[in-house]
Amino acid sequence: MKGPRDLDAPWALFLDFDGTLVDIAERPDAVVVEAGLPASLSALWQRLDGALAIVTGRTVEVVTGFLGDPGFDVCGMHGLERRVGGRLSRPDGLADLGTDVAALRSAFADRPGVLVEDKGVGVALHWRLAPEAEADALAAMAALAARLGEGYRIQDGKAVREIVPAASGKGGAIRALMEHPPYLGRIPVFAGDDRTDESGFEAVNALGGISIKLGDGPTAAAHRLPSAPAFRAWLHRWAEGVTGPSDLPAS
Length: 251
Prior knowledge:
The chain has an 8-stranded mixed beta sheet, with helices on both faces. Strands 6-7-9-8 form a 4-stranded antiparallel beta sheet, with helices on one face. The chain has 2 domains: 11-91 and 168-247, Rossmann fold; 98-165, 2-Layer Sandwich (Alpha-Beta Plaits). The protein contains 7 helices and 12 strands. With 251 residues, it is an alpha/beta fold.
């Protein structure tokens, strides 16, 4: 690594969205993008010569809806769909789970706190507003995953269980981006808060980069900050040229 204050090291920055760039909200559509965040992301994108990407379980469309239309890259659906260099791509041959989404909504129609999030080729079931429904939600998603077969997998998060195509994964998305400019040859940095981010931490560690866990809990990340607001405060300082990845505390 470079020296502890070397802000001009060739970093490549990868960022989770929920619980990292925005605080977790009771409903997925209720998150709030804090004032100044898009400007700081834009400043970092320019500082890093374009080597900045959001890697999230959300769709690309949803993320750009919250952030406007940023020039930086976005990998959605845990890396399954990618908007790189302004061009959107996703693998061919993925089934639309619309029928399964409708069945889940029907099954939980009498549980108003349980939210079904349609991701097209995937689906997420949230129970943050109805913690008493956790066991039923887990069971319903396990049954659906078993029916869909080996082409899909379960992805658990904070009060949410997702079913996603087996080919998805944040670690794979990061590794793929690192093989091409402007990421090629740079030192990867990835920040996230949830179990869905662990494959990203592992990928970045293997590439000799800096992995940052936000909040408590076991993790493969080598560095830790106490919360998403603490991370964003650090991110703003990096955008201003005050600090950098080498200054982060160890996990």
